[in-house]
Design brief:
The chain is mainly β. A 6-stranded antiparallel beta sheet has the order 4-5-1-2-3-6, with no helix packed on it.
């Protein structure tokens, strides 16, 4: 991908949100917050959090600008580094439907 964030921006590939709850209820499109993703790239001025490409992060569901990056419809979020809430360590399982902040 030839998309490089400027300044204190980060590019995140969001984890696909669930389409239904554990009890089988289907979620409306606007009720599927994408709050977990993988860092793809980090701007040169993004130094406050220490986030690196490949990190799994938690972010606010209102954060970022959605961008389609190729003809296949791959989408990423470009957001401010300060919109990141946490870096999720290995072995920690996080379900997006439980993360309505």
């Amino acid at each position: 991908m030839k998309l490089e964030p400027l300044h204190d921006k980060v590019i995140i590939r969001p984890k696909k949100a669930p389409t239904q709850t554990a009890t089988g209820l289907h979620l409306a499109e606007h009720a599927k917050p994408e709050q977990v993703g993988t860092v793809i790239s980090v701007g040169k001025a993004a130094t406050k959090t220490g986030v690196q490409p490949g990190d799994t992060v938690l972010f606010s569901w209102q954060s970022g600008q959605e961008i389609l990056v190729d003809d296949e419809g791959a989408r990423v979020l470009v957001m401010l580094e300060e919109d990141l809430l946490a870096i999720i360590g290995q072995g920690v399982s996080v379900e997006a439907e439980e993360l309505i902040l």
